[in-house]
Amino acid sequence: MHILITGADGFIGRNLRLRISERAGWTVTPWTRHSAPDGLQNAIEQADVVIHLAGVNRPKEVSEFQTGNVDFTVRLCDILAQVASASNHRPRLIHTSSTQAERGNPYGESKKAAEAAMQSLARAHGHALHVFRLPNVFGKWCRPHYNSAVATFCHQIARGLPIEIHDPGAALQLIHVDDVIDRFLALVDGAAAQPDAAGFETAGPVYSTTVGAVADTIRGFRDSRDTGVIGTVGHGLGRALYATYVSYLPVEAFDYPLVRHEDPRGVFVEMLKTRDSGQFSYFTAHPGVTRGGHYHHAKTEKFLVIQGKACFRFRHMLSGETHEIHTTAESPRVVETVPGWTHDITNTGEGLMVVMLWANEIFDRNRPDTISAAL
């Protein structure tokens, strides 16, 4: 598979090129503003697919919308037509437009004209064409202070710099770059078209939010290093925004310290707290040391010994039934605490014991649900 990408050094182009590099046997001809103009025909002749990303959206002069969006697309279409007529070679075409195309501004009008050129070519010469009217695309490597509020917010907040918001309630339609590229690659692989009612190709999900909500979410990511509490970042918009925010961290912020609690028994360190999935921590114990000696009414925990040897002891608070579990780091087993059973853990090895701990809720000092009860 050989793919020609115009605008290959732009935000979507760089992400797309990396994804394609992961495919065995796929090659890319990157086309940028620095490419030799007379090489475009040869690039088209070699291409199985042409992904047309090139365009201008923040020009110094309004006239650049015409030259960068319309004129170049018309030239691309003319060469595609010549190649089709001369050799019957018709690469599949993927073209990125914008939801601005229906808004009557100079940028939108230029994108609409570029769409028309591609559609005219496809009708006349039989090319398979997929035109995407994309909303605001965000993700890693998007240029801040250019055309993405998400990129600007992430860049500024990651560096402790201020952001400017004129209307926090302003509506924002967002799509993550990885979801766009997933759809591109699916089409290259032969997936069926999924046009909307107007005939434009779709990718998704598209997230409906506001400028203020996005800013608040990104500020929350920054603050999580101080509070230890992270929001929902495992799926949906939260996942995509968090991945984007982290990609804007300067290298000196790739790590951060945690609070270390130490006493004669060992140390205890909280790593991460989540609003709906509990918290993660670890603790150590010196040889012969016992930790715990309490029970819970509703809280549950999972323990994993990752260094050393341990004996877990349990006693039922009503029946007095007892139970013991011996574990080692060499044979990893999760030991789960059960409400209504008091429990402790003793280091039965000769060296330091290190234990990972997950609790199903964030520790609340006002309602700790942790009642001392020795075994």
Structural class: alpha/beta
Give the topology string: H per helix, E per strand: EHEHEHEHEEHEHEHEHEEEEEEEEEEE
Evaluate the radius of gyration. 29 Å
- Helical percentage: 25-40%
What's the end-to-end separation, in Å? 67 Å
Strand content: 25-35%
Quaternary organisation of the protein chains: single chain
Count of separate DSSP helical elements: 8
Q: What is the tally of beta strands? A: 20
Main sheet record: 7 strands, mixed
Mean pLDDT: 97
Low-pLDDT segments: none
Shape: elongated
Keywords, please?
five-stranded parallel β-sheet; 29% strand; single chain; 375 residues
Give your account of this protein's structure.
This protein has 375 residues and is α/β, with parallel strands linked by helices. It is built from eight helices and 20 strands. The protein has helices spanning 11-21, 40-46, 63-87, 106-125, 149-158, 177-188, 211-227, 236-247, and strands at residues 2-6, 27-31, 49-52, 92-98, 129-134, 136-138, 171-176, 207-210, 229-230, 260-263, 266-274, 279-285, 290-295, 301-307, 309-316, 322-328, 334-336, 341-347, 353-359, 371-372. Strands 9, 10, 11, 12, 14, 17 and 19 form a seven-stranded mixed beta sheet that branches. Strands 2-1-3-4-5 form a five-stranded parallel beta sheet, sandwiched between helices. Strand 4, helix 4 (106-125) and strand 5 (129-134) form a beta-alpha-beta unit. Helix 3 packs parallel to helix 4, helix 5 (149-158) packs parallel to helix 7 (211-227) and helix 7 (211-227) crosses helix 8 (236-247). The protein is elongated and about 85 Å long. The mean pLDDT is 97.
